[in-house]
Amino acid sequence: MNNLALKELLYKMADDQLILGHRNSEWTGFGPLLEEDIAFSSMAQDKVGQSLALYTLLQTLGESDPDTIAFTRNASRFHNCILVELPNQEYDFSLIRHFLFDTAEALRFEALTNSAYEPLAQLARKIRGELRYHTLHANTWMKQLGSATEESITRLQKSLEAAFPYALGIFETSPYEAELIDQKIFAGEAALKEKWLARIESVIHQTQLQLPDWKTLTPVYGGREGKHSEHLQPLLDEMSEVFRIDPTAEW
Amino acid sequence: MYGGGNTFEGIKTDSLSQEDPVKLAAFEARIARGEKIEPTDWMPQLYRKQLIRMIEQHAHSEIIGALPEGTWITRAPGFKRKMALMAKVQDEVGHAQLLYSAAETLGKSREQMIDDLINGKSKYSNVFNYPTFTWADCCFISWLVDAGAIVNQLANAKGSYGPYCRALERICAEESFHLKYGHHCVIYLASGTAKQRQMFQEALNRWWPPMMHFFGPSDKISAHTEVLMRWKVKMGTNDEMRNQFLDMYVPKIWELGFTIPDPNLKKNTETGKWEYTEPDWEEFKRVINGNGPCNKERLEVRRVAEARGRWVREALKSPKAAYVTPLA
Ligand SMILES: [Fe+2]
Ligand SMILES: [Fe+2]
Ligand SMILES: [Fe+2]
């Protein structure tokens, strides 16, 4: 098994979960209703927990401990897609991102339940239930707000269009695609993207929203190789503010 | 969390003379027997009014209380703390939700309560009008403000209004985890580097006066609330609650080697009561009337969140609404 390929896969997944978990947690105390504060916090806890599980797998492959990995790297060493690092903005953007990302995330882990890398397959099976709740939550809200009032429909449509090029960036391929597919570790980004489009489309069709013409859009790539927007480094600085006071201290 | 009996004002009992004396006597007898009053039971207007006021204040304290700690979620050092703090603050928001529901059983809607919070008509615990400058301030809240809240809440859980008592039972179970988490954080600071110890000592110095205020004005100067005690709305005097807190936590703070910034603080071995420098009650009044260091900021956050979320709540009124909450 190619460890570099495997590590690359684990890093990008772990970083996605950590960064979006962090963003979701920023809704605590600010949600449009208490129930959504609580929902976004639950999803944040799940995502940060999943990132921890993935960093722990990386540790078994010879990387540093999860706290060091998560709290001391600079942005250029993070492999998350740019979609997850964008600021929360209004609730419509956060919801659209949650829908677009979590649909991909659920499909990715679903595919990984059959991974030849057994520890990852086990983890994927273990968190299946959590992920199902996230997509159920996203789909319910999309259907609700995507066909409710003129304002809610207009807002969601605008955010859908703004987020879509970034969402296509989830599927930026790695230099190791062929090996991962060959060794049956992961079915690959192209296959995932195809399934994702079908899922997204089927939910959008149950709303009054229009799916953007994705073939004409330029995907926003770069995140997977450490080229990020201006939003990631400040997020990381904030995240590590206390940790960096003394990285050798126990908190 | 919760800042209990501190915001009762003088009670005007005039309205009681308009209540049916037979029903009133039966109501008081039920409470004296330890029965719980349920939403559809007869109750005096004054009882209803005071309970709404108290439960509503408690709910507001939970949702406002989520803010000073909430700002540390994104900065918590390490996975263990980050995940625990997220869960803790989420619990606090959940407490608000439970308490708003309990208050709604008395006839005031959540929207109305939140409006009254935002327009300054109803109060919340004073302690959340102080800033959390460092991680250690956040740890102080998780441990000691929650500890104070538990003292109040355990007492209130023995009160007379059924829905409030049941909400409090659930809340207290979660609060005991918060307390454990907070204590754990402080133990790590206490047994850590010199810098960490200093961080907590400084937080303790900042938070001690608001912590003493937390239980409300001393019995010598606070409003008379005998009728509320008789009706088991208020379950103990402010000084009793404060004394209980000092008794349980001062030894623990000392045990960790920290200094409490009050040279007069000591337990009188004869009376069994704690003695301390009288807190500055003028400062307390200033803060509760809206002029504390963070009052404006806290309410502004709430106001902005409500305004930004309005379109979502409007959209939910559409008939197809079906709400799904992810499992916590
Ligand atoms: Fe608490
Ligand atoms: Fe609470
Ligand atoms: Fe939870």
Assembly state: heterodimer
The chain-level structural class of chain A is mainly alpha
Tally of discrete structural domains of chain B: 1
Main sheet strand line-up of chain B: 1-2
CATH class membership of chain B? Mainly Alpha
Distance linking N and C termini of chain B: 19 Å
Using the coordinates shown, work out and report the CATH topology of chain A: Ferritin
According to CATH, the fold-level topology of chain B is Ferritin
User: Are any ligands bound, and if so which?
Assistant: fe (ii) ion
Total count of domains of chain A? 1
Order of helical and strand elements of chain B: HHHHHHHHHEEHH
Helix content of chain A: 55-70%
Radius of gyration of chain A: 18 Å
**Sequence stretches where pLDDT stays below 50 over 5 or more residues of chain A:** none
Total of DSSP H or I helical runs spanning 4+ residues of chain A = 11
Q: Identify the overall geometry of chain A.
A: globular
Gap between N and C termini of chain A: 37 Å
Find the biggest chain interface.
A-B, 56 and 54 residues
State the helical fraction of chain B: 55-70%
Provide an overview of this structure.
The complex is a heterodimer of chains A (251) and B (328). With 251 residues, chain A is mainly alpha-helical. Chain A has one domain (3-245): Ferritin, core subunit, four-helix bundle (Ferritin), CATH 1.20.1260.10. Helix content of chain A is 63%, strand content 0%. In chain A, α1 (3-25) runs antiparallel to α2 and α5 packs across α8 (150-168). Chain B is mainly alpha-helical. Chain B has one domain (4-8, 22-295): Ferritin (Up-down Bundle). Helix content of chain B is 61%, strand content 1%. In chain B, strands 1-2 form a two-stranded antiparallel ribbon. In chain B, α3 (79-104) runs antiparallel to α6. The model of chain B has no long low-confidence stretch (mean pLDDT 93). Chains A and B meet through α2, α3, α7, α8 and α11 of A and α2, α3, α6 and α11 of B. The complex binds fe (ii) ion (FE2) (3 copies).
